TrEMBL record:
Protein source organism: Haladaptatus litoreus
Function summary: Part of the phosphoribosylformylglycinamidine synthase complex involved in the purines biosynthetic pathway. Catalyzes the ATP-dependent conversion of formylglycinamide ribonucleotide (FGAR) and glutamine to yield formylglycinamidine ribonucleotide (FGAM) and glutamate. The FGAM synthase complex is composed of three subunits. PurQ produces an ammonia molecule by converting glutamine to glutamate. PurL transfers the ammonia molecule to FGAR to form FGAM in an ATP-dependent manner.
Family: Belongs to the PurS family.
Protein name: Phosphoribosylformylglycinamidine synthase subunit PurS
Taxonomic lineage: Archaea, Methanobacteriati, Methanobacteriota, Stenosarchaea group, Halobacteria
Location in the cell: Cytoplasm
């Protein structure tokens, strides 16, 4: 029988290996109310010419991000950070994040 010296970080295996779950984060970015939205206005006018009566229309961009995370809340935090740092401009955009387990 051999005696082995094991580093203490290997003694608590649960702390070292975490189970990751696959999630899809859906980030929807839209202009804040009051910010001009020329894309939506052009689309609203075209729909009006086709006979559709609309009070208002807003455009939005939607991003679906597949990621692995320890929990749904961790996946949501990561997606919100992506939205804040790149996907949305907080001066002119609002955004929502929805998380779904894959």
């Amino acid at each position: 029988m051999y005696n082995k010296i094991v580093p203490k970080e290997f003694l608590n295996i649960d702390a070292q290996f975490q189970v990751m779950t696959a999630y899809t984060a859906t980030v929807t970015v839209r202009l804040k109310r009051g910010v001009l939205d020329p894309e939506a206005e052009t689309t609203r006018q075209a729909l009006g010419r086709l006979g559709f009566e609309l009070e208002s229309l807003r455009s939005a961009d939607q991003f679906e991000i597949d990621l692995d995370a320890e929990s749904a809340s961790t996946a949501e935090e990561r997606a919100e950070e992506m939205a804040e740092r790149l996907l949305a401009n907080p001066t002119i955009h609002d955004y929502t994040v929805a998380i779904e387990e894959r």
